[in-house]
Predict the structure of aconitate hydratase.
Amino acid sequence: VECGGYDPDAFRKNREIEDRRNEDRFHFINWTKTAFENVDVIPAGNGIMHQINLEKMSPVVQVKNGVAFPDTCVGTDSHTPHVDSLGVISVGVGGLEAETVMLGRASMMRLPDIVGVELNGKRQAGITATDIVLALTEFLRKERVVGAFVEFFGEGARSLSIGDRATISNMTPEFGATAAMFAIDEQTIDYLKLTGRDDAQVKLVETYAKTAGLWADALKTAVYPRVLKFDLSSVTRNMAGPSNPHARFATADLAAKGLAKPYEEPSDGQMPDGSVIIAAITSCTNTSNPRNVVAAALLARNANRLGLKRKPWVKSSFAPGSKVAEIYLKEAGLLPEMEKLGFGIVAFACTTCNGMSGALDPKIQKEIIDRDLYATAVLSGNRNFDGRIHPYAKQAFLASPPLVVAYALAGSIRFDIENDVLGVADGKEIRLKDIWPADEEIDAVVAEYVKPQQFRDVYVPMFDTGTAQKAPSPLYDWRPMSTYIRRPPYWEGALAGERTLRGMRPLAILPDNITTDHLSPSNAILAVSAAGEYLAKMGLPEEDFNSYATHRGDHLTAQRATFANPKLFNEMVKNEDGSVRQGSFARVEPEGETMRMWEAIETYMNRKQPLIIIAGADYGQGSSRDWAAKGVRLAGVEAIVAEGFERIHRTNLIGMGVLPLQFKPDTNRHTLQLDGTETYDVVGERTPRCDLTLVIHRKNGETVEVPVTCRLDTAEEVLVYEAGGVLQRFAQDFLEGNAA
């Protein structure tokens, strides 16, 4: 989002910038359409894949060769469970796992735990689906549903629209589950009709579900191994943050939490403490829910009527995941109200939520740096990990779309959003309650202005992709100077060498809750970073550095993102007072020299030193980011020992030939008193979930043997790991098949 929503030409300008910067990527993607018989490409700028799947692609029930069967989906993004809201089993996997499927192998998983979540009660007035999902995310994280299939049921579930259910299912990875299912019922049928699905298909879904026992009524007697209960009436207006989506708090508790403080806007024109520098209505989490979008638009209208203004330092934006949102807001006369407050449409894409928030006004950025200002972001996305949203937003908070608009008016996280005065109109103090729209009006606008023909008008031409001329060669003609797409090195270097699992030195010792954003960030590339320095040498101007995420196809850029998050805490690197130093740093052993992480990786690569990573609980949570595994493997990491792994990242590690090992309960880096001066061996024959021995050689000559669990969970994962990874396993199968 280089151009904010206050620029009336923002969408066109942002698209032109994207097309120019990403020409190499788009060239490669469009080539795949001509090179493969079963690949279609929807051009960029049309929306977010999960929302398009919800509104158009998923039929809920498939028909093939005259046989009807339930739709399923495996997607290369952690938020693929978005369509679980339709009763479709849809799970997110890493790109490496998806490659195994595209290369002809099965996607394997252990039979998951099934957890029933009974939703009862009725939500209070003024409570959005965002408030509900943030409360559920906190609740389910505490209940440890990691890796489980969650099934929502009960009268509370039945009362939720598909838009509300989609908001909940979308955040499946945030509460750690694999899937978050809702049963097919009247709400499902109404939604399929609303989104313009064919009448015959809608009838098929209803008939099949009722006949096959998948209709909600037939599942009332289902018995779950574990049942949790959640009362919707207990949900208040919520936000989450900083740093984690499950760190929920009520907006009524801002002061008690220490965020809101006695607030007075500076009179000298300076930005206040806690300045909200980014306010973004973004992500399919919320923009696929018309009720949330309309609520934001009505709040904007109410604010405009009272003369309230967005604070000038707030970069505001509206990036819906579907073009349908633009149509119904226009027809309702509400899009101009959004635009007037600076929430014009900047893109139909995944933007701020994935760190694509774009550059700040140079004057604002300079003030933040010069004053070391505590600057923040408020967004309607699903993730707010440290350093993800913007390099100069020290913390980020998740909120519903109408709350995002309210914070653009307030301008600071120090503002008590429930109680402080937003402005004065006709001598009356205006607070949030005075502009918050009534549920009845929200529902009336949705009922009148969201129509089936809007979805048909958007999606029928979008999916008319035509026929592509066949490429003259099935081999891509690599562009040697590209910093976006480069011939990958997965058959050479560290990946071609033998993994000894002996004499490994720790690259990092890490705390709990390490995310894939710590391991390989996706946000803007700064000039002072290792990747920025490399891109400058390649001749790119700083304004075109783009984000780490866009350069994933070039390993020379993406490698330099490994542990490049400035919010990282590597416990091997200490300040003079003994506290852990924050930043992208490592300590090279045996010299004990501290340096930037990339230089440490280069040093070890030149020495051909095998590496290991030691970590705490919930290692690898967050995005299904391949480079979180690719980066460490190319650095020479052979094993990772943690107290626990998130599912998708664990499979990505295996796909790259990195061995995931799990400490036994009550054993961790602290109990073992690890400081990074050790070397490590892993001993034992690898079978699914077997015990192996981690041999620790301390600097003083002492040797400690620690039993650990091998997190190769299936026989298929053992085969992939032993081959060296996904591609190596495919090569073995291919060569063996040809030899036969």
